[in-house]
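Hello,

Our lab assistant flagged a job as stuck in the queue for most of the afternoon. It eventually completed. Since we weren't sure the result was trustworthy after the delay, we are filing this so someone can double-check. Below is the sequence as submitted and the structure that was eventually returned. Let us know if re-running is recommended.
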Amino acid sequence: MGSIEIVVDNKAAEGFAAEHGFALWLKGDEREILFDTGNQEALLPNCRKLELNFSSLTDLVLSHGHYDHTGGVDSVVRETKNIQVYLHQAAMQPRYSEGDGETKSVRMPAAAMRSLWELPEDSIHWLTHPFMISTNIGLSGPISRMTEYEDTGGSFYYDPLAERPDPIEDDNALWIDTPKGLVICVGCSHAGIVNTIRAIIDIVGKAHIYCVIGGLHLINATAERLENTALALNEFNLGRLVTCHCTGDVATEFLQTRLNCEVVQGYAGFSLDF
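-- returned structure --
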């Protein structure tokens, strides 16, 4: 039915560029969809290496508004025609992360925002609820935060003084309903990967999951959160988990030992057929 290529990730196969960022290229339902755009530098060369043609791209989905997922937006808009873009309005707002007593901006780059505002109004779809891109491909829209042990995965704020916490309400995920089961694509899972999967199961009304692929933002997770996450993921009976970007090596290795499904480390150049 289709395929997914990881085109940007922190890790990369030989001959591909790696960067702190994430992007997937999805083919299915007569659509070609770019899910996130990475930081900026790796997207175009990696797509060229994979012989992915931007003129064939029909849709751009932004999982949330951080720079490492939106840095390539300007390049994508320049390379495409008549593209449809899906994002939450909160993706455009100022945002910061805090670490070691310092804050830094992690918002969408100005060039990316400018390129989106220059698109025709009917090309932008603001995600306030679940949305179907095609018959078998949908977007979660905002995800309810239900679990007690999941959080955004880091110290994120609306302001440079780190006084107003940012819940990253724009976080959303994409799913494909395939003959093999659901394929769920996540950017950073700031809403929590368990919350995300539960939300999509509720939306679709199906619980058979063939694969979850993307960043889980468990790089800073406590041992308790990792344990609770593994227990919950096993209840979903996943067919496969492909960890990427912000999951972290420690979390990936932990999940490889605890989950009852195949857990593999994703990288730029990785492909999945469904």
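-- support follow-up --
The delay was a queue issue, not a problem with the job. The result is valid. Residues 66 and 107 are 5 Å apart (CA to CA). The mean pLDDT is 97.
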